[in-house]
Amino acid sequence: MSVQLLRRLFTVDEYYKLLEAGILTEDERVELIRGEILKMSPISPSHAGCVKRLAELFILGLAKTVTVGIQDPVRLNDNSEPEPDIALLQRRPDFYRTQHPQPEDVFLLIEVADTTVKYDREVKIPLYAENNIVEVWLVNLPQKCLEVYRQPTGNGYENVQTFQSGDTVTIQALPNVTFTVDEILGD
Asked: Which structural domain range is residue 54 located in?
């Protein structure tokens, strides 16, 4: 006989009340996914290096075109606020000071994965599709490739492509902007 345990799910507003009450701290590496507060994996040097490379690549290459978020929250809905590694966002004069970006603000989300490839593919990317994030890149460090997800539906992304070393990729919302997979992955 199996026992079904009941879970207490949280809204984004309740999540922030936990922070205000000191139950969660700003230094904790957690994110809210489908109402659950999940501990994020430790960041390896290769993951951190890739995020820094991407941040520099996008900040230098797209200055004054987009706002670049680095491991900042994106409020998808009332019960999910993940923290993608990179977010390319529509520019706003207040730089999102009054509220976190929402799906309609996002040009591109990027997840860098070394130990979390399966989790990102099976949990986060479907969540992004359900919330109409138009484009997601998964930088797959173990396989040394870039997975590009486009055309979101309630059941996932209709267009999924894998790019390898030597390939170039274009950001769908910025068709004149291209990068090589080698620029993205580095050495």
From this structure: 43-185
